[in-house]
Amino acid sequence: MSGDEVVRGEADVGEDLSRWEAYRPAFVFDALVDKAVTIPSSTIRRHVDSVRRRNPEASPAEIIKILEKEYLRVVAAAGGAVGAAAAIPAVGTGAGVALTTADVATFFTASAAFSLAVADVHGIQSDDVARRRALLLATVLGTKGARDIESAIGGSTTAWGKVLLTTMPQGSVRKVNKALASAFLKRQLAKHGGLALGRLVPFGVGAAVGLAGGRALGHGVVAQSRRAFGPPPPR
Q1: Does 167 map to a domain?
Q2: Is position 127 within any domain?
Q3: Contacts within 8 Å (CB) and 24+ apart, 28-34
Q4: Whole-angstrom Cα distance, residue 44 to residue 91?
Q5: Cα–Cα–Cα angle for 193, 198, 200, nearest 5°?
């Protein structure tokens, strides 16, 4: 082997080692959100259509209220299940911690599906993952998330959710997503962390805390979805 080959070999090893040592774990947060916002629009539409078939006389406002009740039941049940599981001696708090991650995943997925279903009732569909991601983060962040998007759309009188999913420039969507993700990691995960502690309280008390906590988070999303899309269409 020539000297040049040895040098190149050492350089390759050094480069491989550098890439190996530069490993950074992906945030669980990103994985959960990415999975939540990729629900096919056809799935959302089928669910909204099924609600309409079961309630043929319901107005769009009444359909949205049904969707809200369904959503609140899902997030409340997920929160209560974690606390109940952790209270079982054979399961314990170790499994409860893992279940809490699953609970957060359920919250994200249910919140994304609910927000997109409300958008569908308003006649809006979007398969754009970046726009969906911003909608999810803004609705779960509450007033702070809404303010970030309203600021980005420059005081438009159109409800911010409609602008976000239809006409907001992609550059603005990227900036909004970056700001929302940073705010979420600082505030919302801390809120979930506090609820997680409550859900892991033994002797069944955690189930009640999880149930109430899940509903509280859900009510925040419902309030923001109403603000995001404004009053429902008449028909």
Answers
A1: yes
A2: yes
A3: 28/101, 29/181, 29/184, 29/185, 29/189, 32/104, 32/105, 32/108, 33/108, 33/133, 33/136, 33/137, 34/129, 34/133
A4: 35
A5: 95
pTM of the model: 0.73
Residue whose pair of structure tokens reads 């089928």 in the numeric block = 46
* Overall number of domains in the chain: 1
Residue 48: inside a domain: yes
DSSP structure string for 21-75 = HT--PPPHHHHHHHHHTT--HHHHHHHHHHHHHHSTT--HHHHHHHHHHHHHHHH
Phi and psi, residue 26, nearest 5°: -70, 140
Write out the residue range of the structural domain in which residue 64 sits: 27-229
Measured CA distances, 223 to 65, 128, 146, 158 (Å): 11, 23, 11, 17
Per-residue pLDDT of the chain (235 residues; tens, 9 = 90+): 555 554 455 555 555 655 555 544 445 677 878 888 999 999 999 999 999 999 999 999 999 999 999 988 888 776 544 444 444 444 444 444 444 566 677 788 888 999 999 999 999 999 999 999 999 999 988 888 888 898 888 866 679 999 999 999 999 999 999 998 888 777 655 555 555 544 444 434 344 445 555 677 788 889 999 999 999 998 7
**Residue recorded with tokens 């491989």:** 16
Residue 6 lies in a domain: no
Residue 189 to residue 103: CA distance in whole angstroms: 12
Q: Hey, what are 43's tokens?
A: 């799935």
